[in-house]
């Protein structure tokens, strides 16, 4: 399947509400692209426009050289002619059909011969590992099994693009982990282009080859998962991608905190990076040491007081009071401290992120002063 391109796409609803604003997005052939963002950011609307269930108000959607939607040219290709498969959030299985019947449904609509239809349905069910449930009805399946059947139904027709609209949101934690693994495996085996909508940054980070973060109908950044995590384009991306979210410390007038001032004084030693608005430190980059212990150089450090310790089994989340600011740190070793205890926290220079007054990334302490990690399209 060729590359999917959205150029200047706008979607307005009645009353003037702009769900998607001037969107430029490229989905590479064979990629697993996640549209990530909070509820109401426009990600599902974008997916539905790619599928042909919604038409753009302005702009153009193409697949390779083929135009699927173009307001200016008056072109619209209906969903059934786009060679795309769509899995809905609620699965949409036919309750009166067995697993086999549901999986064969799309093939029947395409008038595929019976023998070939049976073989392709069986192959798809084996691929998602529910072939032993062929003769059951949806009501006799667990949520995870229903999800697999919905995927099998889509895979059976062998679409060039798989479109998934928050398909894991109705599953419990264990099944979500299992289905994330399955989707990643299916992508690796088939090489299909997948566009996956989610508000869960963990799903996006673990499965995607590319993540497109959206907010209020606008694209914020497109990048591979770890590049986005390490070099967020702006404050919104920095706070949205990561759990717990990045610690943000005001460092611009008039809202500068005492900690922000201390960080900027440290920044002064590292060179001029631009006019700051805030400083970001990821919780896992914030290291803890006993009171009075020195931090390695070069590193920012400050005395802190423990407010709360939250053990998770594999790690500890520690809530700290650093000067006048509350911060979170994650450690994989028992901090050996409780509420009221004094510690020294520190962070390597390259782990301190600087954002301008408008939220745009300026850089990190070890980067050049020129802006980096800008919004991709």
From TrEMBL:
Keywords, comma-separated and alphabetical: ATP-binding, Nucleotide-binding, Transport
Matches recorded under Pfam families: ABC_tran, TOBE_2
GO cellular component, one term: ATP-binding cassette (ABC) transporter complex, substrate-binding subunit-containing
Residue span(s) of domain ABC transporter: 4-241
Entry-linked InterPro entries: AAA+_ATPase, ABC_transporter-like_ATP-bd, ABC_transporter-like_CS, ABC_transpr_MalK/UgpC-like, Mo/tungstate-bd_C_term_dom, P-loop_NTPase, Transp-assoc_OB_typ2
SUPFAM superfamilies the record matches: MOP-like (SSF50331), P-loop containing nucleoside triphosphate hydrolases (SSF52540)
PROSITE patterns: ABC_TRANSPORTER_1 (PS00211), ABC_TRANSPORTER_2 (PS50893)
GO MF annotation list: ABC-type transporter activity; ATP binding; ATP hydrolysis activity
Name under which the protein is recorded: Vitamin B12 import ATP-binding protein BtuD
Originating organism: Actinomadura macrotermitis
Lineage: Bacteria, Bacillati, Actinomycetota, Actinomycetes, Streptosporangiales
